[in-house]
Write a structure and sequence with these properties.
With about 475 residues, the protein is an alpha/beta fold. The strands form two sheets. A six-stranded mixed β-sheet has the order 7-6-5-8-9-10. The model has no long low-confidence stretch (mean pLDDT about 95). The longest helix is centred in the first third of the chain and has 23 residues. The two termini are about 20 Å apart. About 45% of the residues lie in helices and about 10% in strands.
Length: about 475
């Protein structure tokens, strides 16, 4: 066993050589979970508040606060748009959740989403220099049932303090109504990353995968496993990009979506799924095993695995099948198992496997681009423009497309400036931008700010975890795997 690097790049190399692929995958999951808990306990969270102005003596508080700040208050009173220029509002995002569907952990109670929301805030800052605040909302009624109206009202009330809203981890079906209402009623971008963000990055990965297998999207038979916020939006983006609804089959937990799903028709909360029932799955197929016969693409965003997607399903797919198994924290089928069953390209939602379909590739640059042009909303065209930018920059920064290289990595920091530029220009075209920039200006602005914020974080000299701690947690994860197989 070698010394574990602080980057954790050699984590897998420190696993016992006799571990199978499945054991290595499980061990990685355990290690990251145990280390995450210890690190959050040590640092007491991931975010803090720091000033962006100097204090060159106590008289400067007369400038930053009263009496001087009165000029700011009255200027905004007379022209509300100045709130985006005279405060941090223009670069500030509220990450809002009711914690009812936190990753793969379900309803975690009102405060249970804080870890994920702080993580989202950290990603925004590090990847695109966007400031963000985590807001976990208790919107339960007297019976403990989440109330969509309370969440909607809350966001409307706090929106004057923010340049954009990022909705996160809101359970189905409230997530649909909350997004639909707020997108139309707020004059700032409201982004649901579980839906739009996932769809944006998924589309980019699919487009690049299709280049490798030399297939056209309009010719492909597509199966989507899961009909929550993510896959319903994935399907919409696929159709907008040329996929044929008649060759598409979508499943929820009760079977295929089709015109005979009267349970969906009769539930007014499921209008988006009913719309899909009317245009997809003309043969009314109810079994994934049947639907996947001859399918070109499987996109699974359903239940954490690893045995949700069966190897036999993949064996019956068309030549060079594309399999996206993106449940977190454990994919519906592990990549090694999907490959063994014949999958040509496999993607997951995890960074410790090749081809991570990672929302973090999308939302920082998308929100940054929208914020810089003071967009009133994020249109589907803007999201698809981001997808096309991601697909294009993969070969630009990662070299030749391969079966294990269909998307950029988070470490390709210039990607975020390209995404922001594409989103900003599309916002201008769609007529939702308050501020216009010439082509290339936003890209340069974002690239400069990313470099600046990373240098700032380096200068903070944050204490690193000790080697002993890392190895103790590694030993704990290895031991648990060893004991589970006795």
């Amino acid at each position: 066993m070698s010394s574990l690097e602080i980057s954790l790049d050699n984590l897998v190399a420190n696993f016992p050589s006799h571990f199978t692929s499945e054991q290595k995958s499980r061990c990685q999951t355990l290690f990251y979970k145990y280390l995450s808990y210890e690190m959050h306990k040590h640092y007491q969270g991931k975010m803090q508040t720091l000033p962006r102005v100097g204090v060159w003596g106590f008289n400067w508080f007369n400038v930053w606060y009263t009496p001087g700040v009165s000029s700011v208050s009255t200027s905004i009173r007379d022209n509300d748009s100045l709130s985006l220029e005279l405060s941090n509002r223009g670069n500030l995002v509220a990450v809002v959740t009711d914690s009812t569907r936190v990753l793969g952990d379900g309803d975690c109670g009102a405060s249970g989403g804080l870890g994920v929301m702080e993580g989202k805030s950290l990603l925004m800052k590090y990847l695109a220099d966007v400031d963000a605040i985590s807001l976990c909302i208790n919107n339960r009624d007297s019976s403990g049932v989440p109330d969509a109206d309370k969440l909607i009202d809350f966001v409307k009330m706090v929106s004057p303090s923010f340049g954009a809203i990022n909705l996160e981890d809101i359970s189905h079906p409230n997530c649909y109504r909350v997004l639909e209402e707020l997108r139309e009623s707020c004059d700032i971008p409201v982004w649901h990353d579980d839906a739009q963000g996932t769809a944006c990055v998924t589309l980019a990965g699919i487009l690049n995968s299709l280049k490798l297998v030399k297939k056209r999207i309009e010719d492909c038979k597509i199966v989507l496993l899961g009909a929550g916020a993510s896959n319903t939006t994935v399907s919409r983006f696929l159709f907008l990009s040329g996929a044929d609804p008649n060759k598409t089959i979508i499943f929820n937990s009760k079977g295929g979506l089709h015109r005979k799903r009267y349970d969906i028709r009769d539930d007014v909360r499921l209008n988006q799924q009913w719309d899909l029932c009317l245009v997809t799955n003309p043969l009314c197929i109810n079994e994934p095993s049947i639907a996947l016969r001859g399918a070109d693409i499987l996109i699974a965003l359903s239940t954490p695995g690893p045995d949700v997607v069966k190897p036999d399903w993949i064996r019956n797919m068309n030549v060079k099948p594309i399999v996206f198994a993106c449940a977190n924290p454990i994919p519906e089928i592990y990549p090694y198992a999907a490959k063994s069953a014949g999958a040509y390209i496999v993607a997951t939602g995890r960074g410790d496997f090749p081809n991570q379909v990672n929302n973090s590739l999308g939302f920082p640059g998308i929100l940054k681009g929208a914020l810089l042009v003071r967009a009133r909303k994020i249109t589907d065209n803007m999201a698809i423009a981001a997808s096309l930018a991601l697909a294009k920059t993969t070969s630009l920064f990662r070299g030749k497309l391969t079966v294990n290289n269909i998307l950029p990595l988070m470490s390709d920091y210039e990607v975020y400036s390209h995404v922001a530029e594409s989103v900003a220009q599309q916002a201008i075209k769609d007529g939702v931008a308050r501020v216009h920039y010439d082509k290339g200006v936003v890209q340069e602005m974002v690239l400069t700010s990313i470099i600046k914020v990373r240098k700032l974080i380096e200068r903070m000299e944050i204490e690193k975890p000790s080697s002993d701690l890392l190895h103790n947690i590694l030993d704990r994860a290895i031991q648990e795997i060893e004991e589970s197989n006795k």
